[in-house]
Write a structure and sequence with these properties.
InterPro entries: Cat_transpt (IPR003445). This protein is mainly α. The protein folds into two domains: 217 residues, no CATH class; 202 residues, no CATH class. The protein has a two-stranded antiparallel sheet with strand order 1-2. Helix 5 packs across helix 6, helix 7 packs across helix 9 and helix 14 crosses helix 18. It starts with 6 loop residues before the first helix and ends in a 10-residue tail after the last helix.
């Protein structure tokens, strides 16, 4: 029987959504302060308006229930699911007033892309966007990469009403530290440390390639945030190609790889347990998978005669694969080259790479290599069972911060997620083709949106159909929640409004 929401449940959910909306008001102070410091008064007024709207909406939501009790698992599910949507709708207000978006829907698309660390953009004349507007885009991407709920937990915004269900509802099933709040704080502190280090290095590199100090600092900060949080948004229309620097691409790749690894493994390495890192099923699966994909993609690029020099070919090939599997989405191959020079085989390789994604419990999107490794283990075990005598029984285990049994429930859960992603890949591709786009580019774009990658083959632009924008917004939202959470939430809401059947009396 499906769980139903009562009126009291909706009031509890509204209260905690109000807490997150008030946090949004605080987050919008970042671009407001930046606008004041650099003298962008028009932008400052827009973000002041955004802060005011968020304060009013957040306060009204909290008043729905002044003193709620402890969050239950179904409350946590709803709070997390609706948070991304509510924060996107409210965070879009200053963006749509900036003049860089053709409609409110375009601004919603941009903000959903930022919150979910997808990185796709429909902004117009992005090269002349205000520093404050760019700061807001990357602030959303930073918060979204860490997880809105994770940051709220680390700041203690939910008080004593939290348990593991709120943490797990954001797609994080592992606790780095037994205590939930300490786990959230470790993730935030660890990420902040590497973002700061990345900002220093990238700012210096931007300064050395000829940027003014202030501009170099902002570009270094935005690149560092987009890289570690595997968001891939850019402050200039050419993206990462704008910098024309192999050193910048190298630092970006290191940050991407750090952000693509499970925070639990980062914690184990921090504690000196390096053997856990190299024995882990995720790391081994990732190493095998990336080796195959890099070799195949570089070979495909060779046939396209895209680059004359082998070092450039290897650098661009490896960078593209790293950006694709990690869901970062930076492109060192232009959209025009993607659609006219690169072969369909190379595009298909990147599609598979984007679909799988990086590590579970990291900032990446996609199906995740953990699930691929577990299903591969189960497949090998199934074949062994077929070949073994009827009386033989084998115990299948996998290594992830210790030896763990591979049980039926785990395999079934991973298969469910695999199937849901596959269905959404198919549905989104069919819908895109229905609007007259080529099948190969439609598949590329669909996998990019569903897996929160942000790479584009040219379909994502301000002039694309509104219904396609709505579909991609849903894909980004659902992909960030990994579908199971969203489906459970939607079914529970529908069941709540379904009238109860009266039971007939039997004489």
């Amino acid at each position: 029987m499906w769980q139903k929401f009562t009126l009291y449940d909706f009031r509890v959910i509204a209260h905690y959504l109000g807490v997150l909306v008030l946090f949004l008001a605080v987050a919008q102070c970042v671009p407001f302060v930046v606008a004041c410091l650099v003298g962008e008064w028009s932008a400052a007024s827009r973000y002041l308006l955004g802060v005011g709207i968020a304060l009013i909406v957040g306060s009204l939501l909290r008043m729905c229930l002044v003193q709620p009790g402890k969050l239950s698992p179904k409350h946590a599910l709803a709070v997390t699911g609706f948070a991304w949507l509510v924060l996107t709708l409210l965070g879009s207000v200053p963006m749509v007033l900036s003049g860089h978006f053709g409609s409110y829907l375009d601004a919603v698309f941009e903000c959903m892309s930022a919150w979910t660390t997808t990185g796709a953009s429909v902004a117009q004349d992005i090269n002349h966007m205000a520093i404050a507007d760019n700061m807001w885009r990357f602030t959303m991407q930073c918060i979204g990469g860490q997880g809105v709920v994770v940051i709220a937990l680390s700041l203690g915004l939910f008080g004593r009403a939290v348990d593991s269900s709120l943490y797990s509802s954001e797609g994080r099933s592992e606790h780095v530290i037994p205590n939930i709040m300490q786990t959230a704080r470790f993730i935030v502190r660890f990420s902040a440390a590497f973002i700061i280090i990345g900002t220093v290095m990238l700012s210096l590199l931007c300064f050395f390639i000829g940027m003014e100090p202030l501009r170099a600092f902002f570009n270094g900060l935005w690149l560092s945030v987009a890289s570690f949080n595997t968001g891939g948004m850019a402050s200039m229309s050419p993206g990462i190609l704008y910098y024309h620097s192999g050193l910048i691409e190298l630092v970006v790749m290191v940050l991407i790889l750090l952000g693509s690894i499970n925070f639990t493994l980062h914690s184990e390495v921090w504690k000196g347990r390096i053997d856990h890192f190299f024995k882990d099923i995720e790391i081994r699966t990732l190493a095998i998978w990336l080796s195959i994909v890099v070799a195949a993609f570089v070979a495909a690029l060779c046939t396209a005669n895209l680059y004359d020099e082998l070092p450039t070919l290897l650098r661009r090939g490896v960078f593209t694969v790293v950006a694709a599997f990690s869901s970062t989405g930076f492109q060192t191959i232009s959209v025009n080259q993607m659609t006219t020079v690169v072969s369909s085989g190379a595009l298909l390789i990147i599609v598979f790479c984007m679909a799988i994604g990086g590590s579970a419990g990291s900032t990446t999107g996609g199906i995740k290599v953990m699930r691929v490794g577990i299903l591969a283990k189960e497949l090998v075990a199934y074949i062994k069972d077929l070949l073994a005598p009827a009386s033989a029984r084998q115990v299948v285990t996998y290594y992830h911060v210790g030896r763990r049994p591979l049980n039926t429930d785990l395999v079934r859960a991973n298969l469910a997620v695999f199937m849901l992603y596959g269905i959404m890949f198919l549905v989104t591709t069919i819908a895109t083709v229905a609007y007259g786009y080529d099948a190969a580019t439609s598949l590329f774009e669909s996998v990019s949106m569903v897996s929160n990658i942000g790479m584009s083959s040219g379909i994502i632009q301000p002039g694309m159909p509104d219904m396609l924008k709505l579909l991609y917004i849903f894909d980004m939202w659902a992909g960030r929640l990994e579908y199971v959470t969203l489906i459970a939430l939607l079914v529970s809401i529908v069941a709540s409004f379904r009238p109860r059947r009266r039971s007939r009396r039997v004489r």
